[in-house]
Specification:
Layout lengths: L2 E4 L2 E4 L3 E2 L18 E4 H6 L1 H5 L5 E5 L23 E6 L6 H12 L5 E6 L6 H6 L4 E2 L7 H5 L19 H4 L3
Parallel strand pairs: 3-4, 4-5, 5-6, 6-7, 7-8
Antiparallel strand pairs: 1-2, 1-8
Length: 175
């Protein structure tokens, strides 16, 4: 079983991430019975089947997807209200769109479930990912997950506001 970092600890991961292979389509891909993060395209195509097993089905957003696509247009949760987990794919280290998606999920849509970083997730990103509301990290398989765990505690203080501490440092200073 693979391991992830979740809530600042290394734990066994019971979820798998479904990625479509060449030639597979969202409408015909096999839906595994175990807890699975499905790409948004599969959610759209197979929504009825996936809603019937909501506790073992999550969705992951590619960098081109937005949280608005899984929330209702009026700013309410939509299917986010029943999802236990949303994955955010970081296709490469330098692609920062997932940070915005995480903040939108937490701050605009008030998503309370797990937000998991998947893809090219490295130690240097974890502290900022956490500040944006991500609480689980599937570290790239070729990296040491125990070393990556230290990325969550690399800084003692943050200057900017974030999901974890909305006030910037200058507003938190004691007089």
């Amino acid at each position: 079983m693979t391991e992830i970092i979740k809530n600042d600890r290394i734990v066994d991961d019971s979820w798998r991430v479904l990625r479509l292979e060449e030639g597979e389509s969202p409408e015909t891909v096999d839906l595994p019975p175990e807890p699975t993060l499905f790409p948004l395209s599969v959610w759209r195509a197979r929504k009825a089947a996936l809603l019937s097993r909501a506790e073992t089905a999550g969705v992951w957003l590619a960098s081109i997807d937005t949280p608005e696509e899984i929330a209702d247009g009026d700013g309410t949760l939509g299917i986010l209200g029943i999802l236990p987990i949303v994955g955010i794919d970081f296709p490469k280290f330098s692609d920062g769109r997932g940070y915005s998606s995480a903040r939108l999920l937490r701050e605009r849509f008030h998503f309370k479930g797990e937000i998991r970083a998947i893809g090219d997730v490295l130690q240097d990103q974890l502290f900022l990912m956490k500040r944006c509301g991500i609480d689980a990290y599937a570290v790239r398989p070729d990296k040491d997950i125990r070393a990556a765990l230290t990325g969550l505690t690399g800084f003692s203080e943050s200057y900017q506001g974030g999901v974890d501490e909305p006030l910037p440092l200058f507003r938190r200073r004691k007089a």
